[in-house]
Structure formats: structure tokens, C-alpha cells
What does this fold into?
Amino acid sequence: MAELKNDRYLRALLKQPVDRTPVWMMRQAGRYLPEYKATRAEAGDFMSLCKNQDLACEVTLQPLRRYDLDAAILFSDILTVPDAMGLGLYFETGEGPRFQRPTDTIDAIKKLCVPDPEDELGYVMRAVSTIRRELKGEVPLIGFSGSPWTLATYMVEGGSSKTFEKIKKMAYEEPATLHMLLDKLADSVILYLNAQVANGAQSLMIFDSWGGALSHHAYREFSLRYMQKIVDGLTREAEGRTVPVTLFTKGGGLWLEAMAETGCDALGLDWTVDIGDARRRVGHKVALQGNMDPSVLYASPARIRQEVEQILASYGEGTGHVFNLGHGIHQHVNPEHAGAFINSVNELSVKYHK
Amino acid sequence: MAELKNDRYLRALLKQPVDRTPVWMMRQAGRYLPEYKATRAEAGDFMSLCKNQDLACEVTLQPLRRYDLDAAILFSDILTVPDAMGLGLYFETGEGPRFQRPTDTIDAIKKLCVPDPEDELGYVMRAVSTIRRELKGEVPLIGFSGSPWTLATYMVEGGSSKTFEKIKKMAYEEPATLHMLLDKLADSVILYLNAQVANGAQSLMIFDSWGGALSHHAYREFSLRYMQKIVDGLTREAEGRTVPVTLFTKGGGLWLEAMAETGCDALGLDWTVDIGDARRRVGHKVALQGNMDPSVLYASPARIRQEVEQILASYGEGTGHVFNLGHGIHQHVNPEHAGAFINSVNELSVKYHK
It folds into this structure.
């Protein structure tokens, strides 16, 4: 493997000194980029793009050619694991992801098998190793998975949901059934993420997109508990370096203390939290990633720069901050505005690392 | 006016002693009740129901006939004010509310007039006075409005939104334009709510459904600031009693301290906050309303009872708690489960008020 030339991202996650605040963007390989749309059109549909290692590598690298980013993230979907369990993932235009065979009964859940990451998920591993090779050590590669709770919401509901009627009914009426599902998912995610590391991922992130839909207590029981299990089961070192783990619960700003207790290295923040407050609450334990509202990218470069400065100032001096958006970049953002965002972080953050 | 027989709800909001924790449900007059669906079918569409004072009164009273509730809430829509400003509110099946004439330019905003509550909104006032009369003093009547920010999201986007692209672009690019809109809305809401009090409302609630979509700083600038203006402008006494004011920002659990500073009497909580934590943070200043996840009503009566007990125990002894759901009751809930919820609060809360 080529030696890593830029390790700012990994160092900041471990709270080691850096020369400036590292930056990347969630969903940085995405529809706001015309070159992404072209490659996706070539692939056909979204899953064909994920399953073609060369095209998945191509879209992963596209934002790095445009912008001075400090990390690459594997191009894949959060729902690969349930798909590999046999649920039949498909995408309906304008409807988001759906499953042909939802898993909303105890019998269906009992039948689920933990997928072999090198077999049913082999296409992801081939993408990881291809991307890692093609990165040529420029920046580290982030591997990722959806959280068990988040995966389970799609599996039980059959797709996206506003009120999570079926899975919440299961949580309150048949908790043992849901725990069986979540436990299988946690086991699957551990194998999946460890295989990503074995194939070249240098950092891991767990996306808990829907943990914020739970109550204070239900979050601990149905989401955090299984992210804890994953953190405990992950390979934390590879190629002689620590593999940092970041947990991100969208809408989880109230629960940062509990998340930091899991032993993860960093927490992702959405934009509802003031990052300075978050640092005071948990910054002695974990690094923080975030947290500009992606909608700020609709504004002018000057306004974007102002917002970046505000977030940097709120975090304050020293390491432990990875700049990012508070959620994935929106598809209608002007790519030049994304560039203004990244340049602003790169320029303005130097003074916080003297 | 008939003398008020049950003032538990008003007393708890003012942190005066009560014999048990008062309870009501957001959207208690709603589609989960067959009698509501029958009346709505009679009215035709949703706005015709709102505009017919006798039918609006009928659906307001329906849940009180079924359940031992401690408050009634005016049956109306949160978007009556922008509709009265001339935007042309309509409802598309499965699409939620929409406006025929969105207000997304400075010229459109400049032309907006503050509606006269007794004229353009006279139908709401007639509903308030009819309901108040027909309540015959059984329980107090809650009046309400959407918050300026929440109203503005629908006005600028033209309807519901997931990412609030247009209004956030306005917030970051043309803040003065948005402030002009929010200021007109705050003035309108003050007149609207004061007129509701003049017509018989005994308590007021401001629903900030979309404040939680904002960043920490943007929430203060674009949502809270205008709720503050409203709190400052409201009639706080009528018929020799205090008219308590409750602010509810869904997803605002991180910002309770700032909300409590407005001088309101109570805060509504969604289910992501532990109510005991909220009490420790702000309970010396304000009463708290909430906060069971409405999805718990999908579970069995025994499980509902358990959840009620947990929330009561978390709040602890003493007054200052109005039990409610953390959001409106869902349409597919079994009305018997709503009854189990209300009975559980009534029975289990007595021991916290010795």
C-alpha cells in the first residue's frame, strides 16, 4: 500500500495535533456533481453503480479531483447489509429505497442469516480495495455502515417512513423480536466493517439516520445498545495505525454524553447542536465532526465563509475537530459553493492550530 | 360565562398545586375518531370544517365526550393566518397543506397585510366563542397559532418541505427579507391570539413545528426571536385569571433554556427529551407539557400504562407537569388505546401530588 500522504483526518479524530482542521463532506460523491451524474447514467441504476467496483471507485475519487478534501468515503449504500440478507433492495424514483421482502414478523426475522462480507457483500469489498489502491495514499479511506436501528427501520417498514409505525409497534409490543433483529444486524455490521478494514478502510463511520426518531429511553435500548456492541467488536488497529470510529445519530444532540460513553473515537453532529457546547459536554472524551447546515451551501460564497468562521470559532483552538456538513450535501447545490466551503475551512482554520 | 369546573390544566401551567397531573392530547379532535371522520365528511373538506363554527365546535367536543380530559383545544389549522393574508390555502390529498400563491420574493412580502382577526379570521373567532359557550365551564379552552418561522416555511416553500431549500436560502442570502416576513407574521399572530382570548380562549399555545430544522444560531435569529415578540405582546390576563402561554418547538430539546427565557409559562416537549432532565434544566422557570411518543399508543394498554408511569416517575413529585403526547396523535391509533393512556395518567399521577 502507498504511504499515507495526508493523515490530518485520522490525527484529528484521535485528537493529535494538526496544522489545520481537516474537512470532508457527507455524500461528497453525489448528484450535485455533473461528473457523478454522468457516471451514474453510464452505470444504469444506483445499485449497479455500487456493484461495479471501477465505477464506484470513479465516483469516490471525483470530489477529490475538484476539491482539497482530507478524506475519501467508500461509495456505497447504507442498505447493502439487509440487501445481502435477501430482502431485495430497490429504488423507486422519488420514493427512496424499498425492500421487496420486508422483515416484519418474528418468523421472517428468525430466518435471517448474517451475510458473509466476502461473499454476498464481496462487491463492497472489491470497491474498498479498488478505491484504496487508486487513492495512492493521497487521503485516508472511510468505510461505513448504517446502524442496526436504522437498517431495521427500512427492513420492518419496507422502506422510508415518517412515523415508523410498524417498527415502533414492534419496539413497544414485541421488544424481544426487535432485539433479535437488531442483534443479528449488529453481528452482521461488525463482520462487514471489519472486512472493510481488512480490505483497506482506514476509518469507520456508523450512520444512525433514524435514531433521532426514538424517545430518550428507546434510543438507548434500541439504537445505542447495538452501536455499543459494534464498537466493542470492531478491529481498532490496522497497518500499524488506529482505525478511528465515528458514530453519527442525526437528531441525537441531546444524547452526546451517552454516545461518547461507547468508547468510539468521535461523534458526528448535525447542525442543531452548537459545536462549542458539544465540545464542553463531551470534548474531553471524543473528537467531533460537523456541523454546518448543508442548506448554507445555497447561500453566497461570502456567507458560507462567514458560517464556517462561526463554527470554527465556536469549536475554538486545538485539535479534535473534523469539519463537515451536519448531513449529506443536497443535490441542488452549486459545486462552486461546495468549493467555497472547503476552501474556507482550509484557509480559516489554520489560526486555530498554532 | 359558566364558571370553570376543572382548572387543573391552568393551575399546573402556573405551577400551582393540583390533585393529579392534568392531561390532554395534541390533535385530540382528529382522524383516529370515527365520529370526527363522520363530521368531517359532513363538512366536505378540511377548511370547510374549520370555517363552520358549529361543526368545528362539534369536533372539539367529541374527544371530551369519550375521555376524561382536562382541556379542550380550538379546532382549526395552523395556517389560517397566511390564508387570511391572501395566499390561498388548500389541501392536496396525501400532500399536506399547500398555498396557491407562495410568498417567496421581497415584493410579495412587502405587499402582505396583517389580517384583522375579527374580519378575515372572524370564522376562527366565532368558533372560539361557540366552543367556549358549549364547553359550559367543564374544562378550559386552549387557543393556538403556528409560530412565525413555521408559518413562513409554508408560505415561502408553497407547502411542506423536507429540506426547506427556499426559506433557508432566503435566511442565509436575504435575511432582511425574511425578517420582514417574520415580523409581519409576529404582529399578525399577536392580534390573532389576543382576539382568541377576547373571544374566550383561556390558555394559548404556539406550535413551532419546524424550528427544529434550524441550526442553533438560526433558531434564535429566525424562530425564537419572533416567539419572544409574541410572548411580549400577548394579553396575559382575562376574566380575572392568568392566560398561560406554552411554546412548543418540535425538535427543540437542546434549546429549552433559551425558550424558557422568553417569559412564557410552559414549554411543550417532544419525546426525545427525558422530562426529568428537562425539569432539572428549566423546571424552576416554566411548567412542562409532554411527552410520550405518540407511537406508544400502537402498543397494548398495559404497555401504554408502563410508559405513562415511567414519564410520571421521571418528572417526579409536585406540580408543573401537563401530561400530553410529544406530538399529535396518529390517525391509525385505536381510540381505546387513547382512552387507556388518559386513564393511566389520571390514575397513576395521584401519588405524585400528595
Observations:
- Chain B has one domain: 24-274.
